[in-house]
Write a structure and sequence with these properties.
The chain is mainly alpha-helical. The chain is built from nine helices and two strands; from the N terminus they run αααββαααααα. It has a domain of 115 residues: Winged helix-like DNA-binding domain superfamily/Winged helix DNA-binding domain (Arc Repressor Mutant, subunit A), CATH 1.10.10.10. A hairpin with a 5-residue loop joins strand 1 and strand 2. It is elongated.
């Protein structure tokens, strides 16, 4: 089974957004992080928005973020919703093969596809972003590692006034 580039980009976008939940992201920054086509990614993000996985906001301060918690985004469901055709061979798609009726290959491949999707159904986006993988993924994508402070807080940089006696 080979997933299309479209599904690959969809999964990568969800991973990026899951690693970067604290702020909105742009299509341009995701495309840059992965070295992929911004125009193709725009189509992918549009569908992710239509199926309720990504929330998009237009205008200044707008961008993308996950529409649901990572634990609620099932990898198998994403594959089913983004793959245009899961047929492994032509006879699945249109029944035009002369040996379709007695052929056992169709049944075997159907079982293989079901097993493939069943495995993907056991994983959520949260699993892909597990604590042991998230820091490495974030660094490779140019994001701050989870738990890192990206800018000092006001409290940390403000001088402390001496205590006054009562």
């Amino acid at each position: 089974m080979r997933l299309t580039r479209y599904t690959d980009y969809a999964l990568r976008t969800l991973i990026y957004l899951g690693l970067n939940e604290s702020r909105v992201s742009s299509i341009a920054e995701i495309a840059r992080a992965y070295g992929i086509s911004e125009s193709h990614l725009t189509k992918v993000v549009h569908q992710l928005g239509r199926i309720g996985l990504v929330q998009t906001t237009r205008g200044r301060g707008g961008g993308l973020r996950l529409a649901r918690p990572p634990a609620e985004i099932v990898v198998g469901a994403v594959v089913r919703q983004t793959e245009e055709d899961l047929a492994l061979v032509e006879c699945f798609a249109n029944g035009a093969c002369a040996i379709t009726a007695p052929c056992r290959l169709r049944k075997a491949l159907g079982e293989a596809l079901a097993a493939f999707l069943a495995v993907l159904d056991r994983y959520t986006l949260a699993d892909l972003l597990a604590e042991d993988a998230a820091p490495d993924l974030a660094v490779l994508l140019g994001l701050p590692a989870p738990g890192m402070i990206t800018s000092p807080s006001v409290e940390a940089t403000a001088p402390v006034a001496p205590a006054r006696g009562r």
